[in-house]
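Recall the central idea of this unit: under ordinary conditions, the amino acid sequence of a chain determines the structure it adopts. In this exercise we apply that idea directly, starting from the sequence alone.
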Amino acid sequence: MWESMNKVEEIIATTRLNELLNKKEEEKQAKTVLWVLAIIGAIAAVAAIAYGVYCFFTPDYLEDFEEDFEDDFDDDFFNDEDQV
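Accordingly, the structure predicted from this sequence is:
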């Protein structure tokens, strides 16, 4: 009878040990995923800041180009003589 109790205790101890090992593995996986997401987030933040700085310092040549021709278009298209 004592032999069977020892085996039961041994099985319980083995089960607890396996549970502890599985918890540690799950924690490792969770930490790895967290680190990967943190690195991806940091890269995305740096890219967004770089794009914002680029847009801020890049002059808008198209806006200047359109302003130069707005007045000429109005004067040439609508003449006072063409009105009926």
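Residues 2-77 form one domain.
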